[in-house]
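Regression test case RT-17, inverse folding.

Input:
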């Protein structure tokens, strides 16, 4: 067993340890989910992935992130646009790191 691992999902990389709760881009899953694109486990570094390494996580909830405001403006043209956006996210609890 190792202290932490780094894996990728949704085009981003996450550093996790057992028991961590993280927010990732929306995954179409509920219950348990396994990630096999593990880049690093403890002191083992993959090329690009560590062979046989998996991260087991449990889906806590599917929700939407906080709203961000998108503001566009062109000076001296009386042009202003404001739009809001809420990204869909999945909240995961890391249950196990298998090296």
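Golden output:
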């Amino acid at each position: 067993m190792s202290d932490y691992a780094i894996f990728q999902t949704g085009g981003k990389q996450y550093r996790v340890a057992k028991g961590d709760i993280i927010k990732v881009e929306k995954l179409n899953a509920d219950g348990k989910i396994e990630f096999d694109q593990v880049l690093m486990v403890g002191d083992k570094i993959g090329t690009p992935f560590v062979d046989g390494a998996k991260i087991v996580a449990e889906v806590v909830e599917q929700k939407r992130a906080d709203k961000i405001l998108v503001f566009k403006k062109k000076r001296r043209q009386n042009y202003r646009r404001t739009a809001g956006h809420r990204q869909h996210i999945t909240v995961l609890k890391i249950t196990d790191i298998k090296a």
